[in-house]
Amino acid sequence: MNGILFDFSEASNEVWKNQIVKELKVESSKIEFTDNIEEISLDITSPASQDFNSASSNPTNDWKASAFIEVNDEKSANKLALNCLNQGYNELIFKFNSNNIDWELLLKEILVEYIHTRLAFQSVEQLISFLTTNFTSKIHYFSFEIDPLANHFNEFEAELKHLTVNRVLGINGFECQQIGACAWQEIGVVLSTAHELVNRGFNPSQLSLSVGIGSNYFLEIAKVRALRYLWNQITTAYNFDNSVEIVAHVGWSNKSLKDQHTNLLRQTTETMSAAAGGADSIVVHPYDQYAIEGSSEFAYRMAANISNLLKEESYFDKVQDPLKGSRIIENLTQLISKKAWNYFLELDTFKSLNSTEKIAKIKSDISSKRALREQLCKEKQIKLIGINLFNTENPNSQEWKKELNYLEIPYLIYEEIDVNL
């Protein structure tokens, strides 16, 4: 056949930009991306000045699909955990609300050596309770999620120092996001906390870093990449192994208990962001987990199906750092990294893990971003179908629990904002 060879010579950036402007026509202003919450602006056609090495040590892009289970009753939690494992989850996260835990009942028939299990301890009594069980012979199959910003962290510290084979501290960027933090605030808090823990004698291999994933698709990808890149800079400076574990949480801020079908769409795109950004574990929280009525088995199953489909049908788990070299992603990674690093340096001047002054600054800074988010939601500049746009009456709607908070700041739930004010 003749004429099948085409000239694929590289087009100049100017030619490419002019073509995009031409095709956008009256909407050509969209070539300039601006995010007032993140305080960044970007010409989406600009070449990337740097390719950020943010790939994990994982040769593919696979991640652990995590089921988050609050333990109020061990028998019910065990039944739910077994159901989750049968549905495709390969990691369990247990959060405990009581100091009296029946470990044998909770972990009955769960083959911990074939999965990974995280224990989110809220008190040192819970930790000591676990360390006195027979499961300590299999302790290398467990990680602990202990929040260093909690006021009672000093009680944990002595118990944790000798647990060198485990990740024992979960640096909690996720809940910072849930109360309204922007991307660079979230990363800055995580870096500052983790850096102070290293200065206090913990090895980076004992830490896991968590982030919350929102609906700003490209920005959330860049956020995960920026966190890995910046933490690698810190560990390299200390001559530590720069392997890091990033746990991405798809939470509740933009989810609806009134128009529940919209949640699956948001959960899917947010999981895609976490996966494309290279998260090591992804927790898709059931959208109704913090409904007063409690979570449904259906919501857990739908949350599990997202990772199953992205792996088995979309092959999101096959290519390491799949968006490396993308102009938009690399530029956003750079912008977020710079602002997050500056915020880290600002917090680092406190030379403290969780002093009153440092926590007060973090709370004040996040509260400012939260107020802006609420304002933009009321003005419908943040558009959420089923929440502040195209609301529908649903006889099966539920109500949110009111006691959810972090650092004494209530979770930001957009559905709870009165947009009619």
Order of helices and strands: HEEEHEHEHEHEHHEHEHEHHHEE
Low-confidence stretches: none
Morphology call: globular
Per CATH, which architecture of the domain at 64-327? Alpha-Beta Barrel
Task: Present the secondary structure layout.
Elements: H1 13-24, E1 32-35, E2 40-43, E3 64-71, H2 74-86, E4 91-96, H3 103-106, E5 116-120, H4 124-131, E6 142-144, H5 153-160, E7 169-172, H6 173-178, H7 183-199, E8 207-212, H8 217-237, E9 246-250, H9 262-277, E10 281-284, H10 297-312, H11 327-348, H12 356-378, E11 405-406, E12 409-410
Parallel strand pairs: 3-4, 3-10, 4-5, 5-6, 7-8, 8-9, 9-10
Antiparallel strand pairs: 1-2, 11-12
Helix pairs in contact: 7-8, 7-11, 8-9, 8-11, 9-10
Description of the molecule:
The chain has 421 residues and is an alpha/beta fold. It has a domain at 64-327: TIM Barrel (Alpha-Beta Barrel). The protein contains twelve helices and twelve strands. The strands form three sheets. It has an eight-stranded parallel sheet. The chain has a two-stranded antiparallel ribbon with strand order 1-2. Strands 11-12 form a two-stranded antiparallel sheet. The longest helix has 23 residues, at 356-378. The termini are far apart.
